[in-house]
Predict the 3D structure of the following.
Amino acid sequence: MLLDRPTTLGELKRHPEGARERVLRTVKDELRENLLRRLQDGRPIFSGVIGYEDTVMPQIINAVLARHNFILLGLRGQAKSRILRALTTLLDDAIPIVAGSEVNDNPYAPISRYARLIMEEMGDDTPIAWVGQDQRFVEKLATPDVTIADIIGDVDPIKAARGGHLLSDELTIHYGMLPRANRGIFALNELPDLAGKVQVGLFNIMQEGDVQIKGYPVRLPLDVLLTFTANPEDYTARGKIITPLKDRIGSEVTTHYPETVEIGMEITAQEAWTDRGARPVRIPDFVAEVVERVAFEARTDKRVDRRSGVSQRLPISVMENVVSNAERRAVRLGEGEVVPRLSDIYAALPAITGKIELEYEGELIGAATIARELIRRASDATFRDRAGSVNADEIILWFEDGAALQVTDDLGSAALRKAFEMVPGLLQLVGHVGLSKPGDVPVETAACELVLESLVARRKISRSDGGEYARAAHEQRRRPNQDLFGGGLSA
């Protein structure tokens, strides 16, 4: 515990941790040593980061072992900020600093004039404070209005007046975020948005360790791991990384979206808030798969702006809305558990439309219309993956003969299952979805919706925005056994 550690310089010198600090390791050496120890022990490097084990993580590990400043390059929603924050777990539990220091001065190698003066005056009685891992991480979102004063510092005339100092005295400096990250990690998000002159100040600190504040040269030998994030499209869209700074960044690591639906589902299950307290929540695996496939379909849709990307936050937000809609239904109907189904995904349209940027063609069609198409395509892909080719003529002919079925998200599972019993062959097909146990009415009901949604995606039947399933708009009649479920989309 921090309370048990030395509180003065003299105590620190006699303490085992004081001997370790005398070695004067840089923060990059500290990260490197702790990472090597973790690799040797076989412990996970970063907890909660999924899908990067064979791609991104080895590159980050190499960058840390090489003591590089590095940048994470990727589209939005690719866990870039989470990775940078997780770097703090590679730091020591706590480090000693000169108490009151704004720049985390090492008692054995102070860099600020404040620390040097107090140590000259008090010697071994110099008070010592301890800084934990989280306090050694400083994060800043780059915006065009960020100034050198914000990042590096500025002269504080009030300090000068109160202390009777000249403006050129180092004691008059109000330190910016980068000096305050000394002996820690400084993370700058969206680097291209930073003004060029501020980027110049950054690479000067990285290379020379000094900077001019209001025309006064100040030596700042900072000990910092500099990390950055950037969206590759922002290089030209909103700004760029100046060449001298880019040249001084040791490693450029490219992130990516989940490579498989299964990995995406694992991320969404970890991040989405689905534990709603009193009523247990049971999400059918095929419903979770449809939610995840919505994002995968959006990332390949030509009407969605690929340069902007489709964030992993989309399926996370959709899943939370899906569970909320199912929870609302369960509370209203007095059901004992919350079991989402396909109609709940349509109720989550706001979580989709707000997270996709559209091309011109998409803007003409409208975000809501595209979102509904994405849900249907995701449903079809999910059923195809599970069922393959099965015969659905009996269902299609029932609708083509003029029958219709109204499915709303406010109907209970039992009532909805009775309605599905009227559709010949429908309940027989749900077995192909891969239900965990027969007779599970809420899950069977959700599986029936999956079958119908897949038929809608193939344009074999139609679905209104109000949830009514009916004959396809083209009203084309088919002979029995002519169409196989799984045979492709029909115009």
